[in-house]
Specification:
GO terms for molecular function: G protein-coupled receptor binding; G-protein beta/gamma-subunit complex binding; GTP binding; GTPase activity; metal ion binding. With about 450 residues, the protein is an alpha/beta fold. About 45% of the residues lie in helices and about 10% in strands. Strands 2-3-1-4-8-9-6 form a seven-stranded mixed β-sheet, with helices on both faces. Strand 2 (about 185-195) and strand 3 form a beta hairpin. The two termini are about 25 Å apart. Bound molecules: guanosine-5'-triphosphate (GTP) and magnesium ion (MG). Magnesium ion (MG) binds near residues 50, 184, 205 and 277.
Length: about 450
């Protein structure tokens, strides 16, 4: 400012020009600084679809996926196929299901012998054998009981595209990339230039060992996007994972409330901490791309608003056991904590945190497609006796699930703010394009309010 003041004392026109230049420079700097501060934190339990949402951001508002990027997914897609077969082979034994054909058992034994490390590319000449395994009536029965063990959400998708993905010149499509599963480790911020604002969108891992790192990115958050899978109402997770995890999260938050923040995040930096959710998720800075819309533009299936207030400290009451679940002998279902209950408890912890008193909360009730598929064979009331709605009705089911999150949000007592909920399908680009267009204004509004710009 002193530089500027001294400029005013001069009478020459060159001085006036430099004043004007300096002001412009300062304005540019101020704008740049302000633009870097829209921070969207994407949270949720493991496999809820956080990284898939960010892949969509890259497709819709970022640089997309080049041929090289797409090639880098070949191995992951094949690993997903390998893992599907191994998981199902295991589950066949654990659930005591018999194969229809002996040859299917031989295929299962062959793939079960692979360890995670020596998973190889699935060859074109294995397609007939794998298709016959997949079509085995015993394997299909096992697939329909996928909620009793840990089966990848994209299992059926990849098994139905075996011919294409094992071809010698296979190049993964955008849908193949969106369907690929790789658990996120660490915290990564991706920058996107959207409508003259820089959005820093932060991806975290949702698994128990990952959640303890979340605290490192709790500062200066404009909005939280919390992802919850609608399809997890009939699935379970190991009990020790969640209790330990929530305790840690709570402990960390309490620590942060009484001490200085452990880590200061710098919103100018693209990468807060190493770790990526995909082989080529890199290329963090997404310039604005205009992609033509497909012909059927899907509206968000529902938009819901809710007012609530915030209590002084979060509680973990949502982590109750599901009384209706009997134990199976599947090793991945050793303890019976319902995933929906656990996700609601996590949501409650987050929205109750003092860190997010002034942060707008956007809830994505994700995997509408998976819910629609499974609702015909898996009844909500089997897992939630309090559900009195009709069976095989996905609308009743999702409204019931929304009411659970609404109740968790309602637990807030001290501040007023709004929660926005959307039903989403993170693998559907048009759906996410439309939903994001709707939430973008809310996020910008929150940002402007937080910085007293409106
Ligand atoms: N069918 C379907 N699959 C989905 C949807 N959203 C995500 N998935 C799939 O679910 C799996 C898990 O999604 P991710 O995006 O990796 O989940 P995440 O929340 O990032 O998981 P972590 O990184 O472990 O916390 C992937 O295989 C996705 O393709 C959806 O709406 N429908
Ligand atoms: Mg992830």
């Amino acid at each position: 400012m002193s530089n500027l003041a001294s400029c005013f004392t001069g009478s020459q026109s060159s001085d006036a020009k430099s004043v004007s230049k300096e002001i412009e420079r300062q304005l540019r700097e101020a704008k740049k600084e302000a633009r870097s501060q829209v921070k969207l934190l994407v949270l949720g339990a493991a496999e809820s679809g956080k990284s898939t949402f960010i892949k969509q951001m890259r497709i819709i508002h970022g640089k997309g996926y080049t041929e090289e990027d797409r090639k880098s997914y070949i191995t992951l897609v094949h690993q997903n196929v390998n893992m599907t077969i191994r998981t199902m082979a295991n589950a066949m034994v654990n659930l005591g299901i018999k194969y229809e054909h002996e040859t299917s058992k031989a295929t299962a034994d062959k793939f079960s012998a692979f360890t995670r490390d020596d998973e190889t590319l699935v060859m074109e000449n294995q397609v007939t054998e794998l298709l016959s395994f997949w079509e085995d009536s015993g394997v299909q029965k096992c697939y329909l009981r996928g909620n009793e063990y840990h089966l990848l959400d994209s299992a059926s998708y990849y098994m139905s595209h075996l011919q294409r993905i094992t071809a010698i010149n296979y190049l993964p499509t955008l849908q193949d990339i969106l369907r690929a599963r790789l658990p996120t480790s660490g915290i990564t911020e991706y920058l996107f230039d959207i409508d003259s604002f820089i959005f820093g969108i932060v991806d975290v891992g949702g698994q128990k060992t990952e959640r303890r790192k979340w605290i490192h990115c709790f500062e200066n958050v404009t909005s939280i996007v919390f992802l919850a899978a609608l399809s997890e109402y009939d699935q379970t997770i190991p009990e020790d994972e969640i209790s330990q995890d929530l305790r840690y999260t709570l402990g960390s938050v309490r620590h942060q409330q009484t001490n200085k923040p452990m880590v200061r995040t710098n919103s100018e930096h693209l990468h807060i901490k190493s770790g990526s959710s995909s082989p080529s998720q890199g290329g963090k800075f997404g310039r604005k791309h205009h992609h033509s819309l497909h012909n059927q533009r899907q509206p968000p299936q529902s938009i819901w608003k809710h007012q609530g207030s915030l209590p002084p400290f979060p509680s973990t009451k949502g982590t109750e056991k599901n009384p209706n679940r009997g134990k199976t002998n599947s090793d991945s279902v050793t303890a019976q904590i319902n995933r929906l209950r656990e996700s609601c408890a996590l949501f409650k912890t987050i929205v109750n945190s003092q860190w997010f008193r002034n942060t707008s909360v956007i809830l994505f009730l994700n995997k509408t497609d998976v819910l629609n598929e499974k609702i015909h064979r898996s009844h909500v009331c089997t897992h939630f006796p309090e559900f009195t709605g009709p069976q095989k009705d996905s609308v009743a089911a999702r409204e019931f699930i929304l009411s659970k999150y609404s109740k968790a949000f309602d637990s807030m007592k001290h501040t007023k703010r709004t929660m926005y909920a959307h039903y989403t399908c993170a693998t559907d680009t048009n759906n996410i394009r439309f939903v994001f267009a709707a939430i973008k204004d809310i996020i910008v509004q929150s940002y402007l309010i937080n910085y007293n710009l409106v």
